[in-house]
Amino acid sequence: MPNVSTLTTEDPVLLVQLSDSHLFADADGSLLGLKTAQSLQQVIDRVRAEQPQIDLLLATGDLTQDGSVEAYQRFRALSSQLSAPARWIPGNHDQMPHMREATVQSRLLEPVVDIGNWRITLLNSAVPHSTPGYLEEDQLQLLAQSLSEAPDRHHLVCLHHHPVSVGCQWLEPIGLRNAKEFWAVLDRYPQARAVLWGHVHQPFDQQRNGLRLLASPSTCIQFAVGSPDFQVSSEAPGYRWLRLQPDGTLQTGVSRLTDFTFEPDYSANNY
């Protein structure tokens, strides 16, 4: 596993986010008829073609669907093709004991990364056996400490669950349950620049009090944008890239697979 690159505070930082891969112990495991390991491999191939030099890879939860050690090992092996340092956070489908077992003697679960002129803080919003998210007190303290200890850096905060509405009624109850407490911390620190999450299987890009709010596609199935009920769209899997500039600005975009055809099979298995 490569170390985080020794960029100076005057260098831009290129991040790639992979989210919601939903891998299984079985390499041919599928979600609503889509083989998730296969789609992740295709997304990784696209990343390799488009992003030759990645400074940090972020995996923002639901790496697995079944929480198995084998699925985490598969994610680690597939993502290592990118030859970039990486950090992981869990989502509601993940199992932390198995995630820790699969990442032993690595830095994959370290929650704070200083890179370039930025600090990236990765929070665990997952609650065992629960779909909605919640930031326990230790996570809120981690966030406050991380922000307060690096006042001269620009800050990107990552978590799995959405802390604002993304416009899908069915997703409203399964976001971050204590978003008010999360924002109460962030709003105290003007050096915070952006919040990045997964969980919603769709792009999102808005502003809140000068903060950039970003969500991203899944590397497997996509949720229909604006749908009041659970609905999977036929849009292709993808990833998000972020270029963090030394002055605190960022550029970002989403890239999806091309020549991808998928019709969800709702009878195949329940998401």
Automatic annotation (TrEMBL):
One Pfam family from the record: Metallophos
GO molecular function, a single term: metal ion binding
Keyword Signal: no
InterPro entries associated with the record: Calcineurin-like_PHP, CNP_phosphodiesterase-III, GpdQ/CpdA-like, Metallo-depent_PP-like
Domain Calcineurin-like phosphoesterase: 16-203
Keywords: Hydrolase, Iron, Metal-binding
Cross-referenced SUPFAM superfamilies: Metallo-dependent phosphatases
Family label: Belongs to the cyclic nucleotide phosphodiesterase class-III family.
NCBIfam families reported in the protein's UniProt record: PRK11148.1
UniProt name for this protein: Icc protein
Annotated organism of origin: Pseudomonas deceptionensis
